């Protein structure tokens, strides 16, 4: 963690710390000021300011025409965002929980994701789909998923998963300016909400000015030589905590935050694996046919000879259970991550 | 009906107390004995009780994310339901579903935490009843915020075109989290949606549980007699936030006060008194209800938490011999 904070401070020369939600909103507000074609719509995004504080204060500054509460009609308003984007505007549409994608998936993956390709490139869909992801607060099977792999699997969407305030702001600027549909998945536990305390990591120094973080650049949040840990979202922080616990035992883990799944920074993963020879992938999505398998496949394709041990931790192919003891069992914990790193190191 | 309503009201008040244990002074949604979101239904009692009193165990009910008053009125086992809300092993769903996802096959009760998505399964239950030539019916409850959702509108159409024995009950509490009804629809009377599908629609525009009873009786009898679906909208009131922890900063103070004043339970008590029911009788009913709730909560709190190994059970009814996670993961060990 110390390494991470120092790096960011040097890079940005600021000590102003923001929560992830404030950093994300700052980028949206900056883009809305610069470009009148940017607008935000979703459920409870105006007066409420977003259930997970994704739009706090935007209504006051920009008014109801540009920060729009809409009926609970995801098919209609996500599809409308596609249409507005194809008309050249830059809508940001919020799906309150990613778990609600089911009622509007046709607009997401048959229209938003495919129209650029199917039109032979004659249409662009420059929209951002923001959505809250993740568990750890016992909200059961319909409100706790990340579905990282689902969105990354279907071609035509760029998929972004910030884990710190610094990354959240830079990735949001990039997302709004991008000419393609971007799915921006923010983890509830990282937003810095008063009623859902975050770990200490996501609150970071954030520059006042605008800046972009290019898609497809993973961030090495902790440098190490013994084991490579590839992860994203909340589990960046759990992995960093596990890595620091192992320091005293002389185990030096490297923690890579993917930051974007589409495009995926394979090179950073391969470089690390070539150095350590040992790969752990940690994901808060379902295990099979997902992020963990994809990363391991790419490592095998690109650095098979360098690999001596591989392991993955993810949700073990069960819906997210409600009871605390059950959710804790299936969501990879810091202890499980530490044990897995230790096992790989032996 | 009065007993169901006072049971439901006291249940929500007691759950509110239990939910806040361990979550204060700073509210932390994941702390305390009841984790996760909690959507309480105080102020909704007339719809659950007035509708479900006409139903039998073999009739199906689907409820949304605010289900407790409906579950109580449908006869869901109160102890097991409470244990489920506390995330205990002996809960209705063995701790896997929680308060938004209560399932009780004994009385054909199910939930969905996704807006309007309980409507299609209710249509399916009605389809099964019709195909099997039984006279059982299905009732789907949903909030007024859900009536702009495709799952609801498609269900109305399918039920109508196939003359299925299903009743849709909109509970209009005026608010979809922070969105007042007049900002999401131009049609104030949600029951008018029925006209577009050529089925009867009726709105009960008061806090009168007896009026709910009468409207529901008509619709359910019509369904039971094979004459097809109906739509009812019931005016209810949200006496608490959308979920526990919702400060309702968006909601005018006067609206909150009005919701608390217009109490269908008090109104029904007045009606009963006018018909000769004594205060002592009403007190006795209330005490019996409170005792039952207190007993259920006390029982639930004594129940054990599920063993972590339970997390891997029930993914399938017939589990495959080897699952994809066997062998590769920490979590997959059984």
UniProtKB/TrEMBL annotation, chain A:
Instruction: Work out whether the entry's keyword set contains Ribosomal protein.
Output: no
Cite the Transketolase-like pyrimidine-binding domain residue spans from the record. Answer: 18-193
Q: Give the source's domain of life in one word.
A: Archaea
Q: Which SMART domains match?
A: Transket_pyr
Q: Does the keyword Aminoacyl-tRNA synthetase apply?
A: no
Q: Name one GO biological process term.
A: sulfur compound biosynthetic process
Q: Which UniProt keywords apply?
A: Oxidoreductase, Thiamine pyrophosphate
One annotated GO molecular function is: oxidoreductase activity
The protein's required cofactor(s) are namely: thiamine diphosphate
The record ties this protein, via InterPro entries, to: THDP-binding, Transketo_C/PFOR_II, Transketolase-like_Pyr-bd, Transketolase_C
Give the matching Gene3D superfamilies: 3.40.50.920, 3.40.50.970
UniProt-recorded name of the protein: Alpha-ketoacid dehydrogenase subunit beta
TrEMBL record, chain B:
Residue ranges of the region described as Disordered: 299-334
Which cofactors?
thiamine diphosphate
Listed Polar residues bias regions: 315-326
Concerning InterPro entries, the annotation shows:
DH_E1, PDH_E1_Alpha_Subunit, THDP-binding
Q: Which GO terms describe its molecular function?
A: pyruvate dehydrogenase (acetyl-transferring) activity
Q: Name one GO biological process term.
A: pyruvate decarboxylation to acetyl-CoA
The lineage's top-level taxon is: Archaea
Q: Which UniProt keywords apply?
A: Oxidoreductase, Pyruvate, Thiamine pyrophosphate
Q: Where is the Dehydrogenase E1 component domain?
A: 32-308
Q: Which residues cross the membrane?
A: none
Indicate what this protein is called per its UniProt record: Pyruvate dehydrogenase (Acetyl-transferring) E1 component subunit alpha
Instruction: Tell me what organism the protein belongs to.
Output: Haloferax marinisediminis
